[in-house]
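Record type: ASSEMBLY
Status: queued
Input:
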Amino acid sequence: MLFLFPSAIFITIFLIIPAVWTLYLGLTNYSLTGLAAANPKFVGLQNYATVLKDPEFYNSFKLTIIFVIGSAIIGQALLGFIIAWTFSDKPGKLRSFVEVIIILAWMVPSSVVTFLWSAFLNGQNGTLNKIIGGQTEWLITHPMLSIIVFNSWRGAAFSVLLFGAAIAAVPKSHLEVARIAGASKYRQLRDIIVPASRGHILTNLLLISLWSFNLFTPYLLTGGGPGGKTEILPIFVYEKALRYFNFGIASAIATIMLLINFVFALIVIRRGKQK
Amino acid sequence: MSGFVEVKNLTKIFPNGTKALDSLNLSIEQGEFFALLGPSGCGKTTLLRTIGGLEQVTDGEIYIDNTEVTYVEPGDRNIAMVFQDYALYPHMSVEENIGYPLKVRKIEKGLRAERIMTAAEALQIQNLMDRKPSQISGGQQQRVAVARAMATRPNLYLFDEPLSNLDARLRLEARTFLKQLQRELGVTTILVTHDQSESLALADRMAVMELGTIRQLGSPAEFFHRPANLFVAAFIGSTPMNLLDGKIVNGMVHVGDSQINVPFATKSASEGQNVVLGVRPEYVSVSSPQSGGFTGVVKVLENLGTHYLVSIDCNGLLVRGTVPDGEEPTPGSIISLLPDPKRTLLYDKESGDLI
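Status: finished
Output:
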């Protein structure tokens, strides 16, 4: 037990205290400026009431859902599964090559990646416009699509690797019995690979949905704009706290996000346990 | 074309350059239980898988029932395969597992249920239909795998070591059962195994393979009594055959200090030829010392149940024979081991072939 003591101290300082602090802040009118900064007052659930009446919050929540479905579920999980499945029966060298390329997107730091994507999507001299011809300012005309494609590209590696491992774990003989029976590739996928990978699929969906739900990186690309079109919840919280200095409201939103994550995780985990 | 399964000049080279099959020819009769036997890496599984269509051939042709199937998809060959790991789907019940190939082939529900039931009854697993594969024993899993193969009513069964995951006692039971079932169904069956006793027990005819080629083809009795070469001689038999270097001198085989008189075998050998004398321990009897044969000190006695396997040291040469239970010599005593001249074989030292 004594050995756990140092790590317990660190966990308390860096995780538990900030979490409790956030919960507490959500119940005050704490702010970085003005009277409330010097003398924060306990306001009970008033912040929560304000947030839940705020149409901007619901808009931000809607944008977050679009972002999660687009980039996590379709972009990363579905596309990742298709890539993993496509290369599962290809020779090892080709598969390794594709994996390395995909992992590279995962390895590079966020700030560097967003810089590259800014350059890629730039209206005047962007790589994309040079390739397809045109002057489209992608981040302005298609901001949500841009961050969805960005996050899909960025995070697909995880799904590709996880699903790749799940598919590789299906014994060859299982697929061969199906082949001898005359099952098409699609049937092999539907009847054998997907049921065998069920646990991996649920775990993957849980993780990447939570990651995308809490992802702040799109801020580095669009700053939440233009006109709040990409102001997903993590960016919304950031704006409330560090642009409007309203820590009470920001903490309340953060707590609501935590609750949403928690409920979502519970549902997925419970489904995973059902047979 | 005569055989039900005809394999012509079949060559399989894997992408990494391994030549698994080397212009192999084989003909298997309708209704025959045929065993492919050999050490691991000899190409027996590759041959089975190319017949099943799971591996692409590099060169050559395969015919099943007078139809060329060399490039036909496995699903269109009307075959069924049982794998070593049984390949039962963990998320399906026993019933769904047996019915899966029928479902893929779009066999109507009523007929499907009927076929599933017939197969399950034949294998006595009717009471397990709702269980998952993880809830039944290894022996039962093996039966489910066979039932699944049976339910598709194929023209040809391909068995890839279906018994090797069972424990020794269950394996014997399953062996008898499998042979009986094959007799009743009368469907041509190819079995791959590395276990020579399984092959001898089950097959009507068998082939021993080495390095992608067939070293001998024939009935189990032929394999046991007259192995065609040293490779097969060493491979077949639960107690290893005595294989002793010798030379033909004056119509006798000189092995070490011993002179063995085996007139039947020496007839076709030439004087001065370097040979290997082969005789199964089962055909070596014990006699009193100095009465011919191999004389030496009894080193090891092994109890085989009804018999003892006796190993004697004959001036550095190890010779084995069997004696009935109760007549075994005492270790350390000097005895002679006398090969049965009619059962003794001679192989050419150079080529390894039977003389």
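Annotation: The longest helix of chain B spans residues 168-185.
Annotation: DSSP finds nine helices and 20 strands in chain B.
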